[in-house]
Amino acid sequence: MWIGLLLFLVAAAAAVYYFRKPAAKSTGRLTLADIPAKVANPSRYTGIKSVVAWEFMAPNFSTACNFARNHDRIRMPAGDCTPLPLADCGSKTCECHYRPIIDGRKGQRRKDSDRRNSFRMENDIKAPDRRRMTDRRRENAGWDDEHLR
């Protein structure tokens, strides 16, 4: 009887193990949601395509070191960012961090690179020319010098 119960428990555990729903695998790709509020080392987040640059932030100038004062609000790529805290930082409570600069463009703004064709020469119908027919340049005006002044 104990052997039958033991075999039943082993079979139930094996069934649960094999027929369970597989856990969602992470793709290893980072998203904007993976970025914390204050980043000390932006090189960890180089895989995020919508981050254009990183801005160095020194929130408290009274306790900031010289590096922080010289680099406050400077934007740079993730590879050029120095990891924080610095070894020679004299501040006991360093509040410096990096802030991501996000590309806010949603996509291409114009459908065509040259919109003139869609406005003026649609379906081979020649629209009237909107340019003025008179030449307004000074050297082609045809007036004498006293009328141009």
Task: Give the topology, please.
Blueprint (H helix, E strand, L loop, with lengths): L1 H18 L31 E7 L8 H6 L3 E2 L20 E6 L13 H5 L24 H4 L1
Antiparallel strand pairs: 1-2, 1-3
Task: Write up this protein.
- By secondary structure, the chain is α+β, with helices and mostly antiparallel strands.
- It has a domain at 32-102.
- It is 22% helix and 10% strand.
- The protein is built from four helices and three strands, in the order H-E-H-E-E-H-H.
- It has a three-stranded antiparallel beta sheet with strand order 2-1-3, with no helix packed on it.
- The radius of gyration is 33 Å and the shape is flat.
Number of extended strands? 3
> Structural class per helix/strand content?
alpha+beta
- List the secondary-structure elements in sequence, H or E: HEHEEHH
Describe the strand arrangement of the main beta sheet, using strand numbers: 2-1-3
Radius of gyration: 33 Å
Number of discrete helical segments:
4
Distance between the termini: 118 Å
Strand count, sense and closure of the main sheet? 3 strands, antiparallel
Broad shape: flat
Mean pLDDT: 77
Q: Which stretches of 5+ consecutive residues score pLDDT under 50?
A: none
Q: How much beta, percentage-wise?
A: 5-15%
Kindly state the percentage of residues in helix. Answer: 10-25%
